[in-house]
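Lecture 7 notes: from sequence to structure.
We start with the chain below.
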Amino acid sequence: MTQATDPACPHAAEQNTGPSILAPEVIADPFGAYSRLREEAPVIRGQFLDGSPAWYVTRMEDVRSVLRDPRFVVNVASVPDLPIVDPHEKLVESMGFPAELVKYLAKNVLSSDPPDHTRLRRLVSRTFTGRRVSELRPRVEQITDEVLATLPDHTEDGVLDLLPHFAYPLPIIVICELFGIPEADRPLWRQWGSDLVSMDPQRMATAAPALIEHIHALIDARRANLTDDLMSGLIRTHDDGDRLNDVEMVAMVLALVLAGHETTAHLIANGTLALLTHPEQLELLRSRPDLMPGAVHELIRWCGPVHITRLRYAAEDVELAGTKIRKGEAVQAILVSSNFDPREFPDPSRFDVTRHSAAGESHVSFGYGIHYCLGAALARLEVEVAFGKLLRRYPNLTLATDPEQLERTQLPGAWQLKRLPVRL
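Predicted C-alpha cells for the same chain:
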C-alpha cells in the first residue's frame, strides 16, 4: 500500500508507506487487520480515506487517551496557525457536492470543538439523558410490537429480510417521532440516509440537496406550528436566544436523525446475526432475560457497525505511547481494535453475553470523552427492546442462509450487512 503525499500536510515530506483504511484486506477483515496492527505497535503511521497521512491508534488505553485529551481536536481549524484544509471537507467536495452544501455536511456538532461544541451539544443533550430516554421505553415497546406484527406479511416462501422490515423501521420511527418528522416522509429519510453513507458519488450528490431542502421546508412548516418535539425545541432556541443559526439548525437535524437510525439499524442486524450464530448464547439470553442490558453492551462491542472515529488533530506537539505526534498531524482512533484489545478484554474474540454488567460500558463503540455519542442511551434502549421482543415473539427464529454467504457493504470503517434473510 503506497501512501499518497498531501501538500496540505505540514510534514508531507516525511510520509512513508503504511496501512490504509481503504485497503481491500482491511475492508474484508477489519477485525484481523486492525488487531495485527494493534499488536505490532500502539501507534502506526497510516492513511485517511483521501490518502492523507494519519496516525492509527489501536489500543484501548491510547484510544481513550486521544478521545478525552483536549489537545486532540476534531476541527483542524482549531489548531493554531496551521493552514490545512479539513480532509473531511475535501472528501465531501470530492464527492461532487455543490460548494454551498458542504457547510451542512462537514460542519456540525460532530465536527466542532469547545466552546462551539459545548454550546451545540447543550441544546439537545437534555433530550437524550438517561432519565428522558427511560421515559420513552413504553413508546419504543409499542413501536416494536407494531413492527414485529407486520413481519409475516413480508415473507416470501417463508423467508424474510429482517434488515428493511425490522432493523430499519424501528429506529427510524423512534428518531423521526422525536423530531416530529411526518410519517409520510420517513421512507424518504431512509432512502436519503442510505444514499449518504453509500460512498457512491452520484447517489450522495443527488440525495444531499434534496434532504437539505426538505429539512429547510420542515423547519419552516414547524415554525408556523410549534409543538413539543425536538425540532420545535431547536427552533425556539434559535428564535428566542439566537444561539443556533440556520445552517447549524439544519446540520443538527441532519446529523442527529441520520445517526439516530442508520447505525442503530445495522447494530440490530449485526446483533441478530451474532445471536443466531451463537445458539448457546441465544439460549442463555432466552432463559435469563435479566442479562439483556449487559448483553447489549457485548453486542455493541463484538459487532458494532462503526469501526473508526472522526479524525483528531494535535493542537500542539503531543507524545502518545512513546510516539511524538506533532502539531497539526491527524490521528485516527480505531474502535474495533480497541474493543478486541486483550489487555482490556480476556479472550476478546469470544462472544459472551455475561461479559458486561447492565451498567458497565467498557467498550468504546459510542466513543469517549466530550464527543461521546449523544444518542447512546437511546440506541441501547432500542436494541434492548428490539432483541427482547424479537426473541419472545419469534422463538423459532433462524437464519435462512449460510452465514458465510451473507454479503456486507464494502464501506471503509463500517461493518454492515446488505441483507439478513431469516425464517420466523
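Points to note: The mean pLDDT is 87. Residues 172 and 261 are 5 Å apart (CA to CA).
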